[in-house]
Design brief:
about 160 residues; 7 strands; about 35% helix; single chain; Aminopeptidase; alpha+beta
Length: about 160
């Protein structure tokens, strides 16, 4: 898609990062303490701890976001988290493009493995994660009440 560009997060995208995530989480679940921690403090919680955030622009307008949160874990380097696409941009392959870009970003900083948590009722999201190469894993603790599936990807 020629009119989609994936860019690195900058402070101008702070509100869109928060708002896109609050929108989808609130539509299906309830906001939890871990959500507020990441979304209200993206700079200190994600970026200053070795993580990254990418933003998808459609015709120069931010419509998608995704984060890599650095994990202190022997099995996984980063958690793919806080992926959201504005409803008006859904169905335009924005999720796929930002997902591929976040995998490339992880590889570029030497990551070997990614981890994510989701909920199986989010059928399009789970389908996207599978298309991106994630497979289901089991037995990890989650801070989220809503999560009932855990997935991982070897890069």
């Amino acid at each position: 898609m020629d009119n989609v560009e994936i860019v690195n997060y900058e402070p101008a995208y702070k509100e869109v990062f928060r708002d896109l995530n609050v929108e989808w989480i609130s539509a299906y679940f309830k906001m939890e303490a871990s959500d507020y921690k990441a979304l209200d403090n993206a700079d200190s919680y994600i970026l200053q701890n070795g993580g990254y955030i990418l933003v998808a622009l459609l015709n120069k307008e931010p419509v998608g976001v995704c984060a890599l949160i650095k994990m202190d874990d022997p099995s996984y380097d980063f958690e793919l988290a806080k992926m959201a696409v504005a409803p008006k941009a859904q169905g335009k392959k924005i999720g796929w493009l930002i997902g591929e870009a976040i995998k490339d970003k992880a590889r570029s900083v030497g990551a070997k493995t990614l981890y994510l948590e989701s909920n199986t009722m989010l059928i399009p999201a789970i389908s996207l994660y599978r298309k991106l190469g994630f497979i289901e894993v089991f037995g990890r603790h989650t801070p989220y009440e809503r999560c009932n599936i855990q997935m991982a990807l070897d890069l």
